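User: Okay, second chain of the day. Same drill as before: sequence in, structure tokens out.
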Amino acid sequence: MPVLLLDTPAIPGARARTLASLSAQSISVALCTSPGAIVADDQPILIVALAGAVLDATACERAAWFLATHPTVQCVTGAIATVPDLQAMLPSAAQFVAVRTHVAQALLTRGESPRTSTAISLIIGVLRGSGRGAGWISEPMIRTQADVKVTAPIIADVCAALQALELPDAALIDMTSSGLPVSPQQRLMLVPPPAIEVRVAPANGLRVLALLQGFPMGGYTAFNADLLPRLAAAGHAITTCTTEWWRSDWRLDQVRAASPDIHHPHAVVPPAAVPAYIDWLIASRRIDVVFLSHTLLGLHCLPFLRARHPDVAFVDYVHTDWFEAGMYGSYATMASQWESQLDAQLATSHALVEQLVSQGCATDAVRAAHIGIDTALWRHSGPRLTDVRTSIGASATTLVLLFAGRVSPEKRPHLAVDVAAHLVSEGHDVLLVFAGGGPLLQAVHDRSVARGIEGRVKILGELDEHTLRHVYAACDVFIAPSEIEGVARSLYEAMAMGCIPVVSDVGGQRELVVPGTGSLVNAARDDAALYVAGVRPFLDAATRQRASSEARAQIVAGFDTSRTVAIVCETLTLARERRRSRQDALPAALAEGFATLSLEIIRRHVLRALSR
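Assistant: Same drill. Structure tokens below.
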């Protein structure tokens, strides 16, 4: 794919930075020596980049796919900001544009030399020619911006072009063909892939495609963001593909640093073409194993992908039994329903393995792989605990309760407030700390005010891992009254840091919380008194100290992440072996239903948003 690089005068090292990011692209690119060289180029797409901009490793490939699946769009730029309006689009367009080569050729043939030193002139030319046709990819295409600004004259230039065409700002963004399917009966789009050459990364192990929901804040993402770099360190080549409209940047940099081949097809192609994009990733990367992790769309794609790639193995990781059961049923139920399409399955606990087997999964193909924790990293180091406790408003004798995680309805944070209020009413010196974000933060504050303990509740919000480790170490009791869990990642974190767990007895949490390490509470009752009883043994300082040591020792002995990575690697290899030996006939590709599935996924996100 040809790239026209626009120099930025007087910015040291700008060209070198962009050239480095171009050399790391997932597809092959070649520099155009001058604008005139475009006329003779036979490639269908041209990339125009401003020197100094550092492009995402898959930016050029995603731009090519966008144009291949949006025939009315003539050029496309990518997000810096997430809101597609004129002010947000111009900084992107100033630094990165993919344009159909024939459009660029036509502009040059008409003698339209750029009136600005940026790629914005291409968009102006497109608007003048057709009045529409500029597309927008909502996921980041530029990792680092060039050291230039979109100046007022440039903005005025674009606005003048829009005014002359009698078009609003919205004309810059043509997303009409990327929205909802026009009909629930719309068929799967088996679009021809764009004419691009993928650079296949070297691998000492397997080539793995990780199909994930996305990167929303929470334990699900923390696990994936920890596992994928470790698989890459073990020699496997990792490609990551998200399948839903989740927030997509939480801890994503951890994965990107180890394996930058990351794709967000829902932001690039229409819903009915997402399976074709995944199909392309498997074929172009020569994938050996597809690793699914709680992706509804990925499960529904299995028959299609199996038919297209009969030699590729498929492994599913089940995090929890629960998943909006009223609409879809649990993930464990779905995993068992798709068992015939999978070569191996993993689950977060032995309890979940037993459930999968009871629902029909083969005993020799499903294994427990606890999500684990890096116990060398998750240990107290740094500031003195007394200093950290002072910073959150606790004395040496204060009993500090910690609620860490998403503050959302299924986690029942109101029970943590009620527990603290009950202990305070008994005369105990108690502080309750909330570390995490979520839709119920205001409700937590309001409940603490209503219970008269506002001064005993500290809301820290979302914290980075480094700060969170200090908070865990400074707290005494980890209270998690969740209604549902597989095994909460925060439980591993807390116990590794010596924070005593008082948690609901759900999922496989009893596999971690054994006698002497903390308390398990019956989750069926929404009753704070049960959790007060769970905390009461640890009001004694000596008992707390013993339980704290036992909690950490339990995690170090049996739940270090190195064990998890070893089990996952063994299972990926097992899946490959099973795929070679299995002779069962797979059903033909299911070519319909993806559009309806997309509507269901969108409806779920809309309903969740409305319920907040």
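The mean pLDDT is 83.

User: Thanks, on to the next one.
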